[in-house]
Write a structure and sequence with these properties.
single chain, globular, 39 strands, RNA-binding, alpha+beta, 37 helices, S-adenosyl-L-methionine, Phosphatase 2c, domain 1, tRNA processing
């Protein structure tokens, strides 16, 4: 960890070999005084340098010099020799960078110079270890160029560089993490297939920035906001930052009390390996059993954290086990390039045309240099001949509009955001947009930029669009204040940055506070947030918590946890997050009344090929194939049918996709209407959003095979079926003329980019007017495979496919193709194993269920009495809406009336994984004398305040502002006015509720101007996370309660406290963060709620 000085003075000339020897560090922290003994060279570079280490195998190495640092991480698991290449790699990199620094005195540094220096070092390291076995390393190197004030970050694999400024991450290097791609490595083994592709990025730095460089031991166990917390806590002491960060990572690794990035990714990755093999009919039973046995020691589909104990289990071991298993599965299926084909780095450019469509005649090196020189602002436009031929034949736009469509698809998406329906200060946000952020006359890259404007079709003028793309807003210094304001509003839950067409489906559903809503394919969560906002839209008017709920489901556990993270800023007790296959979500409630459904509203944003998102996902240009729509159609139809079955009679379901393909849109809608036999009808929503430019749905389209030849009928498809072609179903073909007149497919909505400068989207709304037909249970893949094997053991997959086609496709609607993840789509279908071994598999999963996965249960009588006694709660408090994970659990969760313990228990009984539910509002703690005290979370204050009769008193606006602006700090009693000071002194140890001592002028003020405070022995602290404190402060400004003089006084007191707490060092302390061992006393002075 390094805190940068105002300038980086150039070092004196030095002998490179002596320099390497003096700077080499391996698996140890530097000795006390080490940095100061190096001729003062580092003192000219950094204001503060610090390190902490935690290492099992001695496989890491670090080095640093005046203006450059490097970390290398050996990744050969438990091999004792795994650190050899890492050590040599650091030595070679230091030598190369020392030469570069010396040359920089005469010539400005370019990204290409830095890249060549480090690449030469990697080549030398490989060469030096050519005959020493399999020795792999990942690398991150950073170079600070004083002349240009540029940081050059060079990354191979999953080491990472982060630059923190004023509590925000302003730069984060690319690394292959979280998506769990196979890491790029520097390898001396010529036989492995892992990529060694390098990521190089630049970023402007400023004095006072804090730069952290760490290997995967940190980001496997910590999220970035946890690292930022360490930076803010020890802002002037890099050594303490490093120690605190590594201690938190170590604690997370050994205790496994929370879900960590590695754990969530590992479960998803290993599940893919298991399902890839299980779904393949070429693998016989003996091979599958052998494969399953190998899976016993790695995270499976239901295990959401690593199962490593405290002996010698290492996270890398599980990763490579999963990689090898997936490679084994692909090999059995005859797939090429095994793991690397599925896990390649998607940031790699692959087009030969520039955004303006001209051929790029430069060689690769010049092209890369040009891209770096433009600070990564240059873009590429891609084309796909199959895409053009297919959609021109479909007629999705008039031929005269085709060039316009392609032009828009080549442009980046504009920035769009909306003021949330539940925001209490929408008018003030609109006023500031009009006054401060119109940017009239702004010119970017020599092109004039139109001012920010309202999206005319979005209700109540709450939607905004700006032609500047999102990443330019992040990069341009001129827009820094606007970017900061948007982030603050987003973190506080007042706005949501979301693609324009993605806002439409929740709007047409018209969700009310009492509705039970299901979002079948919810991740990443922008539409889920919009549904929750509609549920809470009247809360600031009525003061009542909604009675309905939103069940947000996704099949991928990693995406489900991302969904939780995205939705937490809403602080809603109405949310339930589940992980299940959308097409197999069971019925809840009365089993005898299944035909009448359970949910009032359902959003079915189905997985699709995603070509409507080409403007933000240009990689789809390369991946697009007609096969995608053909293979996804059966899954989409299954999900839509299941949604219709779960819908109440009289309820409404929105089906949407982000693709232009009629096979995934109108074909699914037509078959759904045909299957329902009049129970479903399309709703005309033209009056719901009258200003929105849309195009009617299609009643006729073409079905094409893989060679893009038209297939005129289903019978023709059966006749030309072969093993290389995915099966064309009768449901893919257009309706007859009589059906087309009855279905009213023109009521569907198609959004094309040129109409409103958006992405492509498809939306339709169904209303259920009668019970739908009872569905036959869909057989799982394992069952179908077993039946085929028993009927004809020597049958080939091609023969099975032909037989199924001859008998009719209705019996096999599931697809074996992976679903493309696009804009909120769910992941691929994963079938439960219903074989004879199911009880054994179930017990193995249950044996490894983590502590946080206990089922939600009603609050025990004893716990309620403790809580009631602690706060003198009124008897009419809705205690039946309080849930907990177990009687020993410290957390108490509040839910709406629709979410009951019985409902959550039914979900668990029916094998639906409940990932998250409700809103945590209390946490139990023990005082020093052993007394139980329930801490109240900030998000629960407005819910509990009407029922609390003790531990509550009024404070002035000045004291409220002091508490809010001092978030995360300990305040003494005498920091407040005399009356407040007396109240704090008289209060019992624990949580105290403070309300504003004036008559509220509105329901908004009554709900928001209340805080929970932790009363310690001699100090108090606000019980609120930073985003909540920022939202409170913004609310005080809107209500004219904020005082600038109070703010200045708080800032002065904070500076004095930090100055007193600042450690005195005679010289900087040097080293680097890694996953190596040190013992650090990790005491957090803030009594913050862990979930907040």
């Amino acid at each position: 960890c390094w805190k940068l000085r105002a300038s980086l003075a150039p070092p004196p000339s030095m002998n490179a070999a002596q320099y390497i020897i003096s700077r080499m560090r391996s698996c140890k922290s530097p000795p006390e005084g080490d940095v100061g003994d190096r001729s003062g060279q580092l003192e000219n570079c950094f204001a503060s340098v610090g390190s902490a280490t935690h290492d099992y195998h001695g496989d890491d190495a670090v080095g640093y010099g005046p203006g450059f640092m490097v970390v290398a991480d050996g990744v050969s698991g438990t091999m004792k020799s795994s650190g050899v290449l890492a050590k040599l790699l650091v030595a070679e990199t230091l030598a190369s960078l020392a030469k570069l620094k010396k040359r920089a005195l005469d010539t400005p540094i370019k990204a290409s110079d830095f890249s060549e220096s480090v690449e030469q070092a990697t080549r030398n390291a490989r060469k030096a270890t050519k005959r020493k076995g399999r020795l792999d390393s990942t690398l991150s190197a950073v170079y600070f160029d004083d002349a240009s004030r540029q940081l050059f970050a060079y990354t191979i694999g999953d080491c990472k560089c982060v630059l923190v400024r004023s509590g925000k991450v302003v730069f984060e290097s690319d690394s292959i993490i979280y998506d769990f791609n196979v890491p790029a490595v520097v390898s001396s083994n010529q036989t492995i297939n892992y990529s060694s592709e390098v990521q190089i990025q630049t970023c402007a730095y400023e004095p006072g920035d804090v730069c952290l460089l760490f290997s995967d031991g940190v980001h496997d166990n910590l999220y970035v906001d946890q690292v930022i917390e360490c930076v803010e806590l020890f802002s002037d002491n890099a050594d303490e930052i490093a120690k605190k960060t590594v201690q938190m990572a170590k604690d997370s690794f050994t205790e496994c009390e929370d879900y960590i990035p590695f754990a969530v990714s590992a479960a998803s990755f290993c599940r893919e390996a298991v399902e890839e093999l299980k779904s393949n009919s070429n693998v016989n039973e003996e091979e599958y059993k052998k494969f399953s046995a190998k899976c016993a020691d790695i995270p499976s589909a239901e295990i959401t954290r690593p199962i490593f104990n405290k002996e010698q289990r290492v996270r890398q071991l599980a990763f490579y086990s999963a990689s090898n298993l997936l490679a084994f599965a692909h090999k059995k299926m005859g797939k090429k390039d095994d793991v690397s084909r599925f896990r390649q780095n998607q940031r790699r450019p692959f087009s030969k045309k520039s955004r303006n469509g001209a051929d790029d005649g430069t060689n690769g090196k010049d092209s890369r240099d040009n891209k770096k020189d433009q600070e990564n602002f240059s873009e590429w436009v891609y084309t796909n001949e199959s895409f053009i031929k297919y959609y021109q034949a479909q007629g999705i736009v008039d031929p005269s509009e085709w060039e316009t469509l392609m032009t828009y698809l080549a442009k980046p998406l504009p920035t769009t955001f909306r003021i949330n329906n539940s925001c209490a200060f929408a008018e003030r946000i609109r006023e500031r947009m009009a006054q401060d952020f119109q940017f009239d006359g702004l010119v970017v890259d020599d092109e004039p930029v139109e001012p920010i404007s309202n999206m005319a079709w979005y209700p109540n003028n709450r939607g905004y669009q700006w032609s500047v793309e999102r990443r330019r807003i992040r990069k341009l210094p001129l827009l820094a204040e606007f970017q900061k304001w948007l982030v603050e509003l987003s973190d506080s839950g007042n706005i949501t940055r979301q693609e324009a067409v993605s806002m439409i489906p929740p709007l047409v559903l018209d969700v009310q506070p009492h509705h039970k809503v299901l979002d079948m394919c919810a991740a990443p969560g922008s539409k889920t947030s919009q549904l929750l906002e509609s549920l809470h839209a009247q809360e600031h008017v009525t003061g009542k918590v909604p009675t309905g709920m939103v069940v947000a489901n996704d099949v991928d556990l990693k995406r489900a946890y991302m969904l939780v993270h995205q939705s937490k800023r809403m602080s809603s007790p109405a949310l339930v997050v589940t992980c299940h296959e959308a097409q197999h979500i069971p019925h809840f409630g009365n089993e005898d009344d299944q035909t009448n459904g359970f949910f009032d509203r359902i959003l079915c944003d189905a997985p699709c090929s995603g070509d409507g998102t080409l403007r933000k996902n240009p990689i789809i240009w390369k991946q697009w194939h007609v096969r995608n729509g053909i293979t996804l159609h059966p899954l989409q139809l299954q999900i839509a049918k299941r949604g219709a079955a779960l819908l109440k009679v009289g309820g409404e379901m929105c089906y949407s996709t982000c693709t232009f393909n009629p096979l995934e849109n109108e074909a699914v809608v037509a078959e759904l209407l045909r299957w329902s036999k009049g129970a479903l009808e399309l709703v005309d929503v033209s009056q719901a959003l009258p200003v929105l430019k849309r195009r009617p749905g299609m009643s006729s389209w073409k079905v094409m095979d893989l060679s893009l030849e038209e297939v005129n009928s289903y019978h023709e498809a059966v006749a030309k079926k072969d093993e290389r072609t995915p099966k064309l179903l009768s449901t893919m073909f257009p309706p007859t003329a009589e059906e087309a007149a009855r279905f009213n497919l023109d009521r569907c909505m198609r959004c094309v980019p040129q109409d409103a400068n958006t992405g492509g989207f498809f939306i339709c709304l169904f209303k259920k007017v009668a019970p739908t037909p009872v569905e036959e249970p869909v057989k799982t893949r394992a069952e179908r495979r077993s039946e085929r094997a028993e009927a004809k053991k020597d049958a080939t997959p091609a023969a099975d496919g032909a037989e199924n086609a001859a008998e009719g496709e209705e019996s096999t609607e599931a697809t074996d193709a992976p679903a493309a993840e696009a804009d909120g789509a769910a992941a691929r279908p994963i079938e439960e194993d219903k074989s004879e071994n199911k009880p054994q598999r179930k017990s193995r999963r249950d044996r490894f269920l983590p502590k946080g996965e206990e089922p939600y249960i009603a609050l025990a009588e004893s716990q309620w009495e403790e809580l009631k006694q602690c706060y003198d709660m009124a008897d009419d408090f809705p205690r039946h809406q309080l849930l907990t994970r177990s009687e020993e659990s410290k957390s108490l969760t509040f839910v709406t009336q629709s979410i009951t313990a019985e409902l959550l228990a039914e979900m668990r009984e029916k094998r639906v994984k409940v990932v998250y539910a409700g809103l945590k509002i209390f946490e139990r703690n023990l005082t020093s004398d052993g007394k139980k005290v329930y801490r109240m979370c900030h998000c629960g204050v407005h819910i509990c305040l009407p029922y609390v009769r003790t531990r509550v008193f009024q404070i002035t606006a000045k004291d409220l502002q002091t508490l809010v602006e001092s978030q995360g700090e300990l305040l003494s009693f005498n920091d407040f006015e005399p009356e407040t000071q007396k109240n704090f002194e008289a209060a019992a140890l624990g949580s105290v509720l403070c309300t504003l001592n004036r008559e509220p002028g509105s329901m908004v003020e009554k709900m928001l101007m209340n805080v929970a405070v932790w009363r310690g022995k001699s100090s108090v602290s606000l019980m609120a996370a930073k985003p909540d404190a920022q939202a409170l402060l913004a609310a005080m400004k809107e209500l004219k309660l904020w005082d600038e003089t109070v703010s200045a006084h708080v800032a002065k007191c904070r500076a004095e406290r930090r100055e007193r707490a600042k450690p005195q060092h005679s010289h900087p302390v040097a080293a680097v963060e890694q996953k190596q061992e040190t013992e650090v006393a990790a005491t957090d002075a803030k009594p913050m709620d862990s979930a907040e």
